[in-house]
Automatic annotation (TrEMBL):
Keyword Ligase: yes
SUPFAM superfamilies: Acetyl-CoA synthetase-like
Protein source organism: Streptomyces luteogriseus
Name of the featured protein: Malonyl-CoA/methylmalonyl-CoA synthetase
Any one Gene Ontology BP term: fatty acid metabolic process
Top EC class for this record: ligase
Domain AMP-binding enzyme C-terminal, first and last residues per copy: 400-476
InterPro entries assigned to the protein according to its UniProt record, in alphabetical order: AMP-bd_C, AMP-bd_C_sf, AMP-binding_CS, AMP-dep_synth/lig_dom, ANL_N_sf
A UniProt-annotated Pfam family: AMP-binding_C
Length: 485
């Protein structure tokens, strides 16, 4: 197949050899230096059937993954915050022969049985000629299993290339773009979109190491053109933007602000747009599918939606009985199913789970519930398992109620779940972090607020006040913890 990274593998006359490729803090590599470092590492890992990467937010992680892809060796990114039991499961399931890591990293016990290869970002060596095929595995990314141990989604080289090229089309992404982000590098968002994306285009990425609004302002004001983040990051930006003129200037001058991994509350959309005149655009993907939809750079950034299907991606909504939703009315809820070259190949060692994830005609069941507007825009209303509430004969998505609650001045954070109710089937439960803990909004106040904005049947029947909502490392609210807490 053609190279995943033409700027690294083409001759220097054809590629941006002296252009910055990666920057982590004060450390940076040009394309020529990255090619040398990755090329040297391929010589040490070539022939392995699979390698693990201790995926800290560092230059070494980026070089390790690039080297594995150049060598045609599937990489398994490991979350450095994983517990030993989870790490043990991933290692026994994926059976890597080596672990690639930064020289100073202290690895936990489960990894000490593996042969360790320290990544030297100053090394130089030739980039091997790729013999990998389109369908060969590129990555094995473990999903954060809500039930049972994590499953390893095998992602092919074709899937990587097709998703990144579709995003380039949607976002008008070129080699002139400079991306800034502070995302973890063991997930699709930070690693595939945030590192491999710029490198495939011949552009550059500046990783903040740790996300701060000051870092975002510094990099965007210093020539970066794009920002990737998750809703918790944009929430912090929305809080800071009213009092930080440097941040206002930075966001106003950015070419593209992209949020993903969870829904960005409409309230935060509004605060950023009011302060800067710029709209954050959202996209929708998951480990197994990479990217499915996005608001386009030349399209309308409509808060609360994730845009339209990307080039090459087929998307449909399906009712509980399996019938396809044919009415794009912005109201009819169905499960998102997708088909296209962006899909994963299989769950490693889990043919049962792989078969269950697909329909007979090849559509992947995402488990996400959505409605679709007449012009094709998709609005996700929640996960089938945790966010679809069946109350009083209605199917209600938790997301729109959360957005309504966040518009109340007394609400800082909000989550909505359903719990069994003898009369309604399920009743709507709101979990609130109040803006003022000494004077939290009452149930009656919040119920009236929601009923006026949405409909009476969508009002919460129970309210719990919390100091904070439980979130995972990507900022997603862990609703099972709420329901069982």
């Amino acid at each position: 197949m053609p190279s995943l990274f033409p700027a690294l593998t083409d001759s220097p006359a054809d590629g941006p050899a002296d252009r910055p490729a990666l920057r982590f803090g004060e450390r940076s590599l040009t394309y020529a230096q990255l090619a040398g470092a990755a090329g040297a590492l391929t010589g040490r890992i070539g022939g392995a059937t699979r390698v693990a990467v201790w995926a800290t937010p560092t230059m070494e992680t980026a070089v390790a993954v690039v080297a594995a892809l150049l060598a045609g060796v599937p990489a398994v990114p490991l979350n450095p915050k994983s517990g030993e039991k989870e790490l043990g499961h991933i290692l026994s399931d994926s059976a890597p022969e080596l672990v690639l890591t930064a020289p100073d990293d202290l690895l936990p016990a489960p990894l000490r049985e593996l042969t360790r290869v320290d990544v030297d970002v100053q090394a130089t060596g030739p980039v091997p000629e790729s013999r990998a095929a389109d369908e060969d595995p590129a990555l094995v990314v473990y999903t954060s299993g809500t039930t049972g141990p994590p499953k390893g989604a095998v992602i092919s080289r074709r899937a990587l290339a097709s998703t990144l090229d579709a995003l380039a089309d949607a976002w008008q992404w070129t080699g002139d773009d400079v991306l800034v982000h502070g995302l973890p590098l063991f997930h699709v968002h930070g690693l595939v979109l945030g590192v491999l994306g710029p490198l495939r285009r011949g552009g550059s990425v500046r990783h903040l190491g740790r996300f701060t609004t000051q870092g975002v302002a510094r990099e965007l004001n210093g020539g970066a053109t794009m920002l990737f983040g998750v809703p918790t990051m944009y929430h912090r930006i929305a809080e800071a933007v009213t009092s930080d003129p440097d941040l206002v200037k930075a966001l106003t001058g950015a070419r593209l602000l992209v949020s993903g991994s969870a829904a960005l509350p409409v309230h935060d959309h509004g605060r950023i747009a009011t302060a800067t005149g710029r709209r954050v655009i959202e996209r929708y993907g998951m480990t197994e599918t990479l990217m499915n939809t996005s608001v386009r750079a030349d399209g309308e950034a409509r808060p609360g939606t994730v845009g339209v299907p990307l080039p090459g991606v087929e998307l449909r909504l399906v009712e509980e009985d399996g019938a396809e939703v044919t009415s794009y009315d912005g109201e009819t809820v169905g499960e998102i199913q997708v088909r296209g070259p962006n899909l994963f190949t299989e769950y490693l060692n889990r043919p049962d789970a792989t078969a269950a994830a697909f329909t007979a005609d090849g559509w992947f069941r995402t488990g996400d519930m959505a409605v679709r507007d007449p012009d094709g825009y998709v609005r996700i209303v929640g996960r089938k398992a945790t966010d679809l509430i069946k109350s009083g004969g209605y199917k209600i998505g938790a997301g729109e109620i959360e957005n309504a609650l966040l518009e109340h001045p007394g609400v800082r954070e909000a989550a909505v779940t359903g719990e069994p109710d003898a009369d309604l089937g399920e009743r709507i439960v709101a979990w609130i972090v109040p803006a003022d803990p000494q004077s939290p909004p009452t149930l009656e106040e919040l119920a009236d607020h929601v009923a006026q904005r949405l409909a009476p049947h969508k009002r919460p029947r129970v309210v719990h006040h919390l100091d904070a909502l439980p979130r995972n490392d990507m900022g997603k609210i862990m609703k099972r913890s709420l329901a069982h807490g």
